[in-house]
Amino acid sequence: MLVHVTRSAFPPSLDNYRDQIESDGVTNFELLLAGDGFDGWSLPASTMSGHPVWFQLTATSVSSARSVVRQAEAVGDTEAADHVRALLPEIEHWAGSLIAVGLVDGDPYRSTPLDSHFRGRIYAPVSRLTPLSTPVRTTTGSKLSDLGPFAHTAAQLTNRLVGGDDEYRRMLRIVEQQGNTVPPWARVELNATRGDWWSTANDSTCSWLSELQLADQFAIPLSRELADRRRVLREVNVQPDSEKRRVRWAVDALIFIDGVPIPVEFKRNRDLEADLPRQLRRYSGPATARKPAGSRRPEWRIEHPYVLVVDNIGIDVFESGVQVTGMADLSIERGAFTAKGVLAFRRALSELCSA
To answer: What average pLDDT score do residues 6-27 get?
Structure first.
């Protein structure tokens, strides 16, 4: 489980203000105060459905709003000038404070950015938006400024993560001490998963900040369950027969099932990888796989076109970059991992690769 803190800034220019008005009829600031949700808010790729998101209005929002008023007056846009001028008292009241908390209620996705600043961003839908009744200051010297997401070194980042359960409990206490009520769904445990990797695999609220975390806590243990003698080779170079030039492509792991080498690729979220098919075709056979270093430098032949993908969804089989569907045993979603299911997956994959 991850808890996000995200900055919301009042539009710094008249053009940005008009973009928000054209999109929603009001500014994001008004949507936050009204408790309306967002079809998409810029968040990290590690975001998953069920994660709480706390919204912080930037301290610079006051100067931005005043600038928009001046710009609107300069071009004779009295409607915009009057609108923003009327919002100024509320902006001044909330600037530099937590303003609302919402809940991610769908998977993240890529979207066409409004401007160059948001190019390449990941978005996620946010619902159950709950405005706070009293501002909770986040600026230097406030009670929250002692916590990681609000410390000076992190305060200018658009998105931050609460570091752990102790920190989040302190944050919630400070919010409530100001007279605010925290929704029950925002009272979560960040490190709720206990036990072995099976628990992590079946905890659908668990997410990872990096592919390295995913590999250590989920992908590598799963690969060991599938592999002959539980052997997993990391970072193996693959040279497809179709590539006459020497390439430096390395798949995340290579395992063997009944002696057949099978590439395994780790992703935090496959849906956010626009070039995933092209990546997976690199590791599809016929190809030669070899360790990049070592005294023996063994080589293996990959004659089949199959690659495994392990991510926050689960594990699936891809054939030449396209997901294999219609075969129930060749797909396991998180929340449904059992020893029997993994054994059935291994058996079906062995039959597929040796056919």
So the answer is: 91
pTM of the model: 0.69
Please check whether residue 307 is in contact with residue 283, taking contact to mean a CB–CB distance below 8 angstroms: yes
User: Is the torsion defined by CA of 277, 282, 285, 291 positive or negative?
Assistant: negative
SS3 198: helix
Tokens of 308: 């495994």
Q: What is the pLDDT of residue 101?
A: 96
pLDDT of amino acid 192: 56
What domains does the chain contain, in order, with CATH numbers?
4-186 (3.10.590), 197-354 (no CATH)
Mean pLDDT of 237-250: 91
What distance in Å separates the CA atoms of residue 62 and residue 342, rounded to the nearest whole number? 56
Phi, psi angles (nearest 5°) of residue 304: -100, 165
- Predicted confidence (pLDDT) at residue 114 exceeds the cutoff of 70: no
Nearest CA among 315, 215, 325, 269 for reference residue 107: 269
Which amino acid belongs to residue 287?
A
117 contacts: CB under 8 Å, gap ≥ 6:
none
C-alpha 197/C-alpha 217 separation (Å) is: 6
Asked if residue 286 has a cis previous peptide bond (ω within 30° of 0), the answer is yes
Query: Quick one: which of 341, 320, 321 has its CA closest to 332?
Result: 341
CA distances from 274 to 109, 111, 113 (A): 10, 12, 16
What is the rounded average pLDDT of the residues 158-172?
A: 89
Q: What is the DSSP string of 218-230?
A: IIHHHHHHHSGGG
Whether 126 shows a pLDDT value over 90: the answer reads yes
* 3-state class percentages of the chain: helix first, strand second, coil last, to nearest 5: 35, 25, 40
Output the DSSP codes for 296-321.
S--EEEE-S-EEEEESSSEEEEEETT
What digits encode the pLDDT tens for the residues 288-332?
999 876 556 688 999 999 999 999 889 999 999 999 998 889 999
